[in-house]
């Protein structure tokens, strides 16, 4: 009797604690995601919907702007995420060395960008990369370039600025994750390796990196998701330009829904492309890490 | 250390770290310098302080109903943070302390949803808010982010370190489960809450895309929206934009420096 009362109590409390969150997730995540799937098969303008079957998917394959947004997003992903994660890993490794002087200062400085608002740093970068702006002045002063680079007016350089901006903002964030994980590694392993004459780069590559695999996977997945839905930076730095060279999938969804005559059904189809990409890439990253461990 | 190769390695490490620190801090410096110059000087890359600071602040204050905008930002971030911490920590605690096979399955599904991009939700959410007549309201901004799967996961991980003995002792003393949560768990886990506060407050404070969709009138706008609007158009006054950027960055910067140690502590807890 007492036992069953306790079990009942446990059951009621178990649901009571998680229920507020589950209800909110139900309304604001599960319901929209299912609705979005339904909507991706609808055609029509504004709130007038009719079932369109595969019309939207066919439209995707024939839509040059979608293709450009998809390519841009994948380019940002393929270039920016590896650069950022490698930098974060190297900085974390350097700052994990107790013999480095000023570790606290360097850690705070490199982490500081994460504290800025996306809007604030994007507009600051926009001002810094102006045609006659400080970046061009400095590069010319150091004789790295002879004439100013049209950063935001050139399709190639605009991409570079967006990549530089995101890397600036998020490297320190990932570094903190690596540093935290490194501090859990038993230092005596490194001592033993050092006595055995293992050089520093090999200690990093054969000891640190394998032990950080779960954290590296975590940051890779988080960064992939973040980059696939990139919106704030390109929208503020370049507004997708010049000639759609920095247009991302999220920006295209926004434009389709809120800028032109709303085409919600087609926009939902584009958003499901992101869902599928996230699923595939997370799965691949998971496989890659598991394989190397075996 | 006498090894010349190791010495070069150390030198290179310092050079790389110094360069990284310089690049990281420079835009902050530039924001401050820029806010004191005229737009023409800023665009020309003038790197010394000017005397236009007061003019820039004045223009910024007349460009929007600033007290109202700052209030909106603080209200949304403040209420949003309190609700998010409450709802999400309740759930994180519940999932960890009361185990059942059904709830483990629910939790697993929830973790999968961590990877659902916001882009896939924003159109249905927009229509939902329009149908609920909640467009252009605080609720529309705050409610969708209150149950944060990431923060629920974070609290569940942190709860693993919450001593069982404390809970058992409190039960023997006759405390109800909600009292244990409120009077034992919350005070014990305050550093977890501090770290989560920083993360959640920053997310709410910096939110841009969703408010851009939902908030339509000037009296509801938040700081990021005002700064973004100032920076767009054909001839933006970047000196004024820099003043706005400083306003938008200052609160999170202050919180970070006040709670820096807690922040790293909390992150350590989340990764373990």
Automatic annotation (TrEMBL), chain B:
Gene3D superfamilies on file: MetI-like
> Which keywords does UniProt give here?
Cell membrane, Membrane, Transmembrane, Transmembrane helix, Transport
Cellular compartments annotated: Cell membrane
Q: Where are the transmembrane segments?
A: 12-33, 74-95, 107-132, 138-159, 180-202, 238-259
As for membrane topology, the entry says: Multi-pass membrane protein
Domain (ABC transmembrane type-1) spans: 70-259
Q: Which GO terms describe its cellular component?
A: plasma membrane
Q: Which InterPro entries match?
A: MetI-like (IPR000515), MetI-like_sf (IPR035906)
What does the record list as GO biological process?
Answer: transmembrane transport
UniProt similarity note: Belongs to the binding-protein-dependent transport system permease family.
Q: What's the protein name? A: Lactose ABC transporter permease
